[in-house]
Amino acid sequence: MAKTAEPKTAGKTATGKDRVARSAADTEEIRAALAARLDELKTEHDQTMVEIAELQRDRLTDSAGDDQADTGTKTFEREQEISLANNIAERISQVERALERLDEGGYGWCERCGNVIPVERLAAFPSATLCVSCKQLEERR
């Protein structure tokens, strides 16, 4: 009598359920997509930092005759630019964390409840670490 193939497991979830291991091809496809996104973000961050430095130089040389409103506007613009750079840096960290989770076998599984993160969510946000329910709970706090 033929024995049916059982799915390979890759550890247990927080709820004690077995995790089904993804194929090596799937893992490599995910890794390639995350690595490409990481490269894009690093390039974007580097370009943003160069632009911020250039704008800062321009502001320093073009500040003669500025009144308080001009100074306030330049400060506000600089803070927005720095916030943008910090946002990109945070996204870089998220993608790096996703790559770490992929190496550890936890990619695609919610860090809080241990349930699978839907493929649709991972397609929209590949560095997601929480399922939709847990993310909604986190955002309510």
SSE diagram, text form:
Elements lengths: L8 E4 L5 E3 L3 H38 L6 H37 L14 H6 L7 H9 L1
Antiparallel strand pairs: 1-2
Plain-language structure description:
The protein has helices at 24-61, 68-104, 119-124, 132-140; strands at residues 9-12, 18-20. It has 141 residues and is mostly helical. It has a two-stranded antiparallel ribbon with strand order 1-2. The protein is elongated, with a radius of gyration of 22 Å. It starts with 8 loop residues before the first strand and ends with a helix. The relative contact order is 0.13.
Query: Main beta sheet: strand number and arrangement?
Result: 2 strands, antiparallel
Distance between the termini: 55 Å
Which percent band covers the strand fraction?
A: under 5%
Q: What is the overall silhouette?
A: elongated
**Helix percentage range:** 55-70%
Number of helices: 4
What is the topology, as strand order, of the major beta sheet? 1-2
Structural class: mainly alpha
Question: What is the average per-residue confidence, as pLDDT, rounded to a whole number?
Answer: 82
N to C succession of SSEs: EEHHHH
How many DSSP E strands?
2
Low-confidence stretches: 1-11, 13-18
